[in-house]
Structures are given as structure tokens and as C-alpha cells.
Amino acid sequence: MNLNATIFFQMIVFFILGWVTMKFIWPPLIKAIDERRHKIADGLAAAEKGKADLAQAQARIGLMEASAKSELHTRITDAEKHGAQIVEQARAEAEAERARIVAQAKQDAAQEVQRARDALRNDVADLAVKGAEQILKREVNASAHAELLAQLKAEL
Fold first, then answer.
1. What is the CA radius of gyration of the chain?
2. CA nearest 128: which of 99, 151, 107?
3. Beta-carbon neighbour count of residue 38 at 10 Å?
4. CA–CA separation, 156 and 149 (whole Å)
5. How far is CA 15 from CA 25, 30, 50, 103, in A?
6. Comparing 101 with 154, which gets the higher pLDDT?
7. How far apart are CA 143 and CA 120, in angstroms?
8. Which of 11, 70, 86, 156 has the highest local Cβ count within 10 Å?
9. Which PANTHER family does this UniProt record tie to the protein (predicted)?
10. How many angstroms separate the CA atoms of 114 and 90, rounded?
11. What 3-state class would DSSP assign to 144?
12. Residue 110 and residue 114: Cα distance in Å, rounded?
């Protein structure tokens, strides 16, 4: 075998193999690499967009949280004011009820005192009549002397 012919045939096989590789193998391989490159680029773009969306969402959450805290503070303040108002109103109503009860008790006490005085006057008048009866040793007619007894009661 001739060394030059072997090298020549090896070169021809190498160029044929190179041409087949470039014609049939290289384009699908380049296409797969480009598709992979586009997928990676799209994934990175989606990740960046996701980061931006996350930052916007966190900013909105921060605003919503601040708004909720402000609203909560306002509601708590309103509730405290309303509670104090209810307590003050209940206190005023209790004070009015106490004043009404005290006035009613005073009125009841005055009526009871008046009844006791009237009863005492009647008892004193009866005792006076019995005492006069015993002094005079005769019976005093209460119906006959009703005007006199009424004057006596009035003086007492």
C-alpha cells in the first residue's frame, strides 16, 4: 500500500464525513441549541418579569397593610369613643334613675310620715276622748261631738 494513496483516501473520507455532518447532523444540532437558547432566554425574561411582579405585589401589600392598619386604628378610636359615650349615657341614665328613686323615696317617706301623723292624731284624739270620758265619768258621743274632735285633730 502506498502511503500517499492512504492519506489521500482518508482525506476524501474525512471531507465526505465532514460534508455529511455539516449537511445532515449540524443543522438539527444548531436548531436544538438555538431552541434551548431561546427557552433559557424566555425563562430568564419570565423570571425577571416575575421578580418585577413580586416587587409590585409586595408594594401593593405594603400599601394595603398600611391602609388596613390606619382603618383599624380609626375603628378602634371610634369604638373607644362610642364606648365612652355609651358609658357616659349609662351614667347619666343611672344618675337620673337614682334621682327619680330618691325623689320617689322622699315622697313615699313624706306620705308615710303624713299617714303616721294622721294615725297619731286619731290615736291622740281617741285618748283625749277616753281621758275626758273618764274625767267626766260619762260617755262622750263621738258622732255628736265630731266638730269638736275635728278641731282637736287640727290643733294637734
1. 60
2. 151
3. 10
4. 11
5. 14, 20, 49, 126
6. 101
7. 20
8. 156
9. ATP SYNTHASE SUBUNIT B, ATP SYNTHASE SUBUNIT B', CHLOROPLASTIC
10. 35
11. coil
12. 6
* 156 and 125 Cβ atoms separated by less than 8 Å: yes
For residue 15, the tally of other CB atoms under 10 A from its CB is: 10
Residue 125 · residue 152 · CB < 8 Å: yes
Give the confidence band of 2 by pLDDT, cuts at 50, 70, 90.
Answer: confident
Q: Which helix (H) or strand (E) holds 36?
A: helix 26-136
Residues 6+ apart with CB under 8 A from 129: 140, 142, 149
CA 22 to chain centre: 77
Rounded distance between C-alpha atoms, residue 145 and residue 87, angstroms: 63
Written as nine digits, the cell of 114 is 303624713
128 Cβ neighbours under 8 A, 6+ residues apart: 152
How many Cβ atoms from other residues are within 10 Å of residue 153's Cβ?
14
pTM: 0.44
Residue with cell 492512504: 6
